[in-house]
Amino acid sequence: MTTTTPKDTTASGPVWDWAAGHGPVTGALSATTGAFALATTGAATGMPPTWALAVGAAGAIGHTVSTLRERLSARTVALRASSWLLGAGWTTWAVATGPLSWGAIGSLAVLGVAIGTTARSAALFEDGRELELIAIADRQVAAELSAERRTVAAEWVERIQRVAGITVTVLAIEKWPTATGFTIDAELPGGTTYDQVAKESARLSADARLPHGCTVAATPGIHQGRVLIDVATVNVLVNEIPYPADYSPLSIHTGLPWGVRGDGRDVMVFLREQCALIVGPTGSGKTNMVHTVLGSFARSGDILSWVIDLNAGSAGLPWVRPALDGDGTPGRETRPGIDWLASTYDEAMLMLDAALRLGKHRKVFYQDLMARANTDLLPVSAQIPQVMILIDEGAEILASSDPQMRKLAEKILEVIRMLRAMGVRTVLTALGATSSVLGNLMIRREAKARVCLTGGEVEGMDLSKVFPGTRGLRPDQAPYKGAGFVGTPEQAPGLFKSWRITPHQIADIVRATSALHPRLDEASATAAGPAYARRWDTTRTAWMRTTTPATSEQPADRPARETPGRTGAGLNLSALRDTTTPTPGLAAGGPDEDTLAAEFMAQIDAQFGTAPEPTADPSEDDDRPRGLNLAAFRNEQQDSEARRDALALLLAAGPDGTGASAISRALAEEHRTTRQTVVGWLKEWAEDGTAIRIGTGTKTRYVHHRHASDRPAED
Question: Which of 223, 572, 607, 630 is least enclosed, having the fewest CB within 10 Å?
Fold first, then answer.
């Protein structure tokens, strides 16, 4: 079979565009050569000379009509008509006298040069005429806009003078692209500051007869003698605004959208170095706002979100359920929209302790990386993600007098105080803007991105506590659910509306962003320890799967600690039950489990006697009664727990894998597991396919089989 090599179609000379129109040169050349050819043919065939004159007259009339329809200048009309008539006249003369004389050829050449020169001049004249018409139209539009702006400027100069007693000079007025208002740039008289205008915001709004939900907000200008006055003319807060259907990737470095401002622009929040505070009473839309925040975290490829909600974990459950249920696609894994959810005090303490460990470890482990980047801030990326801890009603935890909550508050404050540079920040929510809730200096200093949802609530909503130093903000300006005020270091506090996000949309976001979620870097995951690696264990997430409430469908006389499959009385050895079938209603480490353990030990004592605990001095056991000794069983159970923790650490290591030394160090404090034991487990897992061994000698690593497909091809 032969193949034909295509020829090179690249032209090596000038390329003629036969579809292009004539210019001054080619037009004159075409006209003269055409006239010469017609005259020569007519003279040779005896054509009547008047025919050429008739054709030229018809051409002049046709071009005059077409030129007038194109609305070109009289100069162009005269040029085209005269060119036809002169060419027809020469052709008529040449047919009658002969076109091959030097006089005929010379006159034709002069005629062609004259036509080309005149055509060039006419083209330049038409271009200039067109530009002038455009400029005239622009000047008319500018004059109309200028007249409108002068009217608005005069109106507001008079209004500010009458209401605030300040005479300003308006320098510019800019209409918002969203057509919902405008901004006035004004110069203040000597000795006047912008806040003297800001404190009259309510009176100016009323004097301008603005609709409810529209305000006048004064902010600093380009220097201290200038003021920017934002005037909203369309109320964007009254209607529900759905969460955008665009789930494109975000980054903590480029800002996170949390809603829409009064001028129609998105609220962009930057949380790389700062914490956030969200205040909202019951019914104001605070829970919806929390979901909006978690949605921005889920769409960010460099953020891992952890959630603490001691109210049954309701803030984080919608972001976990789609992963527990799956989407029904074979071979496709849906990861939770959040990386960790704590609904109990014990789980919250585990989370905060893990955050402190990983933050402190990052300070040492990534010193070389920060030195190469010449920065004292950890370079956050998809490989080293930032951890954002959202604590629902966290401000109330900090103000609580309960001993447990005080310990939790200490951990929260420690995270806020110590881990800014290492990429661990918090988002706290509060039910009210009062001194008791917002009295902590750490919150006021670190939570510089602040949101206050009012919903029209006035009681307990002191906006001066949330936005100190800002005047003119009143709760009744945002009487709608999901509406309130937002302020960041980048933008002054102002009205905004939170997007409405529904449970179905949350599920869509979780599935759409599943592949985008980063994984905790290996160094941080190792420092976080088994508490982080086993965060999704069945025993710790059983409460998430209990979706049917205990209502009238469950008999009222059913024993509280009855377990599925158990029909008779006697010993209930939980250690021998299938751990994959959790007991409904029991949270790991909770009070119900402690009660069950106490009852279990009481049954053992009643049936077998008390088993001696191992002690350092055997003589202490001489007076104790002998009975069933479950120490061997207890050691076996401890080894099983250590083995599960090791496997969880291997899974958490991701595609990069880990080694025996790293796992043994992570398990040393809790289980005192030796490196030799871990090596044995890893070899066993490599043989049965649970793990894949990579490298040899001191560079040996093991990767969990789930991450085998994520590794580069060379591995």
Answer: 223
